[in-house]
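Re: that backbone. Tokens:
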């Protein structure tokens, strides 16, 4: 039986998930199901009708104990979490979509599964491996084929409409973002070392991509799994091919970087890093795009966001440089033009003063927040972290503090799966 035939008859009938082989995604995504979810999401059917149908399917799915039976496409077992409950993940994907189009896309994809347990499990695992893991790490996870319902525009537009992001990094992005922020973290107000006023609190600041740069660097053969990630992203946010390409081309510009992360150690907690449970970045403490600050006259303040706390544990009070609590509302503006800031611009960066420094893209911030909420509310963050923890406890060397490549994670998952079977 061919992979394509096996795929069309049952999403879950996969026998070689840990073999390390990768069947090109384009050979797995055929038939009318490929476009049905996308057409439904773009159609005229009321959003509430789509959501109601999805919620009925999820209510039945929650009672289906077969969803919890070991499924080969799941992440490996860990001591704390067996795996992400597919019902929970689908539910939080629906409830935390970045906009109405994203809600329609998720509801349509769930509806396309039509209550089939295997299809729903595969849908949740597709979003886990191709959407959540790339934001938590760098690339998609393992050789699990993407669900057709989750990638409705893959062959039609994404795989043959996107050009890869250049592998060479724009050298001035970090300097431009730091300059835009006035060499200061807007959350903690700590300054960047070497660019601070006298007696100001200064630490090392890092620039955080809203969408990880590695997702945008993919293979021109059109078989790279980053393309599946981008197909899911564009449907979750509601972008057309042109907008998706625009985002790809701007990954190394200031509009795709949210702000500088403050890096310091407080009571053993390192406040840095994307999507870490103790991270203070726009990914862990997501910027809420729906609650901008109000002016006295009731008008919205542009580019103003509320910082939203996520995670199972409450963060301790995080101090600013003046020991007051960190800011819970952030307004982005280009501070690089301020005379007081320009006094502290390093000589090597002065040539960049006239370069454009666009503010963070609101749609990317909205996507950022949605992914963060899904990761934490579904428990996926803990499961993904457990891969590294369990891998280390098995006496294996963790190859990186972050996910670097798909092959690297394939090897780790294969090792853990073999250890579980041998135990």
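Recovered sequence:
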């Amino acid at each position: 039986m061919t992979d394509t035939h096996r795929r069309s008859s049952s999403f879950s009938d996969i026998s070689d998930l840990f073999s390390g082989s990768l069947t090109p995604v384009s050979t797995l995504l055929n038939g009318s199901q490929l476009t049905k979810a996308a057409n439904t999401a773009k159609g005229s059917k009321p959003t509430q009708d789509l959501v109601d149908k999805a919620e009925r399917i999820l209510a039945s799915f929650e009672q289906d104990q077969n969803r919890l039976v070991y499924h080969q496409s799941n992440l490996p077992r860990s001591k704390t979490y067996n795996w992400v409950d597919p019902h929970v993940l689908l539910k939080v994907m629906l409830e935390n979509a970045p906009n109405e189009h994203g809600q329609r896309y998720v509801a349509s994809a769930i509806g396309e599964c039509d209550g089939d347990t295997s299809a729903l499990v595969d849908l949740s695992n597709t979003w886990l491996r191709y959407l959540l893991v790339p934001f938590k790490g760098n690339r998609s996870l393992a050789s699990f084929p993407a669900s057709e319902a989750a990638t409705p525009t893959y062959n039609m537009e994404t795989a043959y409409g996107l050009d890869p992001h250049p592998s060479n990094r724009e050298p001035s992005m970090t300097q431009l973002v730091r300059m835009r922020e006035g060499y200061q973290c807007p959350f903690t107000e700590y300054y960047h070392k070497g660019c601070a006023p006298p007696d100001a609190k200064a630490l090392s600041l890092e620039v955080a991509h809203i969408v990880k740069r590695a997702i945008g660097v993919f293979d021109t053969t059109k078989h790279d799994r980053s393309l599946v990630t981008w197909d899911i992203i564009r449907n979750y946010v509601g972008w057309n091919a042109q907008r998706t390409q625009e985002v790809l081309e701007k990954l190394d510009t200031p509009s795709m970087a949210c702000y500088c992360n403050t890096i310091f150690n407080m009571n053993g907690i390192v406040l840095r890093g994307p999507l870490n449970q103790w991270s203070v970045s726009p990914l862990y403490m997501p910027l809420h795009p729906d609650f901008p600050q109000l002016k006295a006259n009731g008008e919205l303040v542009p580019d103003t966001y509320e910082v939203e706390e996520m995670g199972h544990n409450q963060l301790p009070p995080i101090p600013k440089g003046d020991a007051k609590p960190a800011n819970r509302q952030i307004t982005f503006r280009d501070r690089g033009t301020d005379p007081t800031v320009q006094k502290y611009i390093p000589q090597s960066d002065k040539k960049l003063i006239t370069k454009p420094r666009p503010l963070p893209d609101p749609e990317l911030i909205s996507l950022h927040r949605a992914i963060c909420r899904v990761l934490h509310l579904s428990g996926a963050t803990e499961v993904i972290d457990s891969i590294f923890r369990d891998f280390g406890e098995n006496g294996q060397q963790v190859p990186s503090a972050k996910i670097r490549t798909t092959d690297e994670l394939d090897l780790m998952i294969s090792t853990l799966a073999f250890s579980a079977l041998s135990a």
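The first strand starts at residue 191 and ends at 192. The first helix runs from residue 3 to 9.
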